[in-house]
Amino acid sequence: MKEVRIVGVPEHFNLPWHLCLENGEFNAIGIDLQWTDIPEGTGKMCQMLRQEETDLAIILSEGIIKDITAGNETSIIQEYVASPLLWGIHVAADSPFQSIAELEYKRIAISRLGSGSHLMAIVHAKQMNWDLEKLTFVIVDTLDKAVVALQNKEADYFMWERFMTQPLVDQNVFRRIGECPTPWPSFVLVGRRAFVQQNRALVDNLLEVINATTSEFKFIPSIDRTLAERYNQKVEDIQDWLSLTRWSQRQLSKVNYDKIQQQLVDLQLIDTPKQYEDIKM
Length: 281
Prior knowledge:
It contains twelve helices and ten strands. It is an alpha/beta fold.
């Protein structure tokens, strides 16, 4: 039995992995898959890959591409979620801000530098034609700490996945004043380059298991109710989310890779672009 460490956010996108674990499907092919939830998100997972604290990660596409160009020795194994991520733009429920235009140059809560919440705040500011030099970021680590930061007026707005924050909106903790979808596939499965090179057959076997589950995930009986219960969501919100979400069973395309990297170059977040052939498994 080969132990393999994997990390991902504690969100509904990753339920297919947990179902495979609970069903013993990885054990059946000789893989002792050790899953760790990382509520801090992409920036923390990039750090863990660099420090060899994990072998694999389910991670935001733009975050890992930026970090790979900055020297992270990680390979993209496969696109995991092909659909865009829908980011909600949130303020505290009692915030005076009523429109996105009022957020120009206000303090942005982010989980950490290089995280999705950081990069997408910059993407959104660019779309709004705001001066990127004037953006101010407040590092909060996690969603729970973002709640505290907004309530205590330590930051003004926070961008996070729109459906995972829906309970906070329903509870009148956050107020959502806009949305910003990523213009590219949202999640990829990546691995430390040395690990992938040394365990290619194992990685291929692991892909067979997870791809079989994601390809039929939406057809699992009562999957909407299972998701709603596990992730504290309303069934109708989960049904909306499922209708928008497409899991992938193929490699991230060169077209999408180039689109993501070029956007990051245009935002001056990447200094040294990398060729597609150099980053994929």
